[in-house]
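[agent] plan:
  1. take the single chain provided in the ticket
  2. run structure prediction with default settings
  3. attach structure tokens to the ticket
  4. add a short note for the reviewer (M.T.)
[agent] executing step 1
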Amino acid sequence: MDYISEIFSRLDLQHIREFLLHGVECLEVSDENYKQRINNVEKPFLQIIEEKFPEEENTKVTEDIFHYATVTQDVYMEIGMQCGAALAMQLFASAKNLAK
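[agent] step 2 finished; step 3 output follows
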């Protein structure tokens, strides 16, 4: 595979996400859609909660964990939008310089 083909083989949001979040290459790109990926980790997680906590605590623990996940999701979404805007500005600046 030549180097240009290698560039396009890495052209995937999961690769970009892994590099931006962790500074490393994404070793496995999932072919599952977003809903499948979430469901695959949610089922075992909920099962563990049900097994480890009594029923009266189960709901509270689950709510607290989902609240944590929601706040984390919100923060990373905002960071992602800022990163997207910064990248767009860099692209526009590069295009402007090429036009000169």
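[agent] step 4 note for reviewer: The chain has a mean pLDDT of 89.
[agent] ticket updated
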